[in-house]
Specification:
The chain is an alpha/beta fold. It has three domains: about 280 residues, 3-Layer(aba) Sandwich (Rossmann fold), CATH 3.40.50.620; about 150 residues, Isoleucyl-tRNA Synthetase, Domain 1 (Orthogonal Bundle); about 50 residues, no CATH class. About 45% of the residues lie in helices and about 15% in strands. The protein contains 17 helices and 15 strands. Strands 4-3-9-10 form a four-stranded parallel sheet. A four-stranded antiparallel sheet has the order 5-6-7-8. Helix 2 links the parallel strand 3 and strand 4.
Length: about 500
Amino acid sequence: MNEEKDIKLTVYNTLSRTKEPFEPLRPPFVGMYVCGPTVYSDIHLGNCRTFISFDMIYRYLLHLGYKVRYVRNITDAGHLEGDRDEGDDKFAKRAGLEQLEPMEIVQKYTLGFHEVLSLFNTLPPGIEPTATGHITEQIEMIKKIIARGYAYEINGSVYFDVQKYGREHDYGQLTNRKPDELLEGTRELGGQDEKRGRLDFALWIKAKPETLMQWPSPWGWGFPGWHIECSAMSTKYLGVTFDIHGGGMDLQATHHTNEIAQSRACNGTAPAKYWMHTNMLTVNGVRMSKTAGNGFLPRELFSGNHPLLEQGYSPMTVRFFMAQSHYRSTLDFSNEALKAAGKGYAKLMESLSVLEKLSPSATSSVDIAGLEEKCHAAMNDDFNSPVLIARLFDGVRIINSVSDGKETLSASDLDMLRRLMHTFIFDVLGLRDESKSADGSGIIEGLMKLIINIRKSARENKDWNTSDRIRDELKAIGVEIKDAKEGAEWKI
């Protein structure tokens, strides 16, 4: 591990609301827990943005030489709609609509989740635990919280006592909000509400006779609350205190706030050192949501099958588009921005082809070591991918300049530039060349060779209409053909 690079790395900690030097608790080991999806429906783009962002963070930590234990959970237990334990069971509702057993719902949408993230070229986590596979751990944690006086049982349900916890700890420290502010938006306690306080949340919920997913517990048959599962699983696989806890910013106010409270109540310490959150998505400046009618699923984005989309956009175009915004910044989707990202991605890929064809000179006229340092500096500044991309396009400029004979690279600098571009484009940003198949063979190259051969036959037969049509229609989709003595050449 490069100690110099490690010392420079800073991350924004939501807990302190400042950038802090990244200092792992047990270097070179890093424990990272990211809240995964609730698998009762198709994954949405907000989830994708979060998981792609943390995939990039994971990749860069690996690049620096850290041994990262990356844990991302799957929520597959029945939960009530809403953050405050209200509403209908999500899994039961979906199971009824699709006429499937709840665990069939889980399997269907877990597979879909993995397929979509595979299209985005994300690395799988080291551990992907499920809530239903850790019911025992959740029950044991609840028992400890009760024993320490921070939870109470009523009629077979167990609730966390936020008021008592708040007398000893800062319950709203993650969002910098006071309990009175957090009460805004919660419903008034009615005569049938058994919780003592409006901010109290369920650790265990008594099951109704018709509840499809329920388990035995010391308090009767029921199912765990939403928040307890993450605390139980992160503790089991990363310890009572670990390095990074991540998720979308929508989880801050309730889910992560309650995770901190119940983990501290159980274990006597905060669960994570650094809390990191991705920002929200907008579409043409309006927050993406189902109610606004501007939300689209990843596969709709790929196919273009949505009223707001003018065309489909490839997975790597979308990943590159997301990397152009810092993970803590709002990301605005528009056709114009996605088309521009497609051109930028294509330019990066084309530059790599040019780079492979460059020949070294005796000396260098450009500073490749300085460029590499700038690339690391960008990622060391809270994983600033937009700045990294700008530095990579500095590399593209150098490649084109050397190709045109305006600048020179020595053999060692040429090797360094090739290593630098491949490392940061593929290993860190997580892009892949979509013109090539999984085994590295060139699909587009093969297709273009076929088309050029067809055009060559047309020209030999003096079929100028076919020859010109192939040239013009390729040009219309952004592919240029040039005829030369050695044969036709093409470029995007």
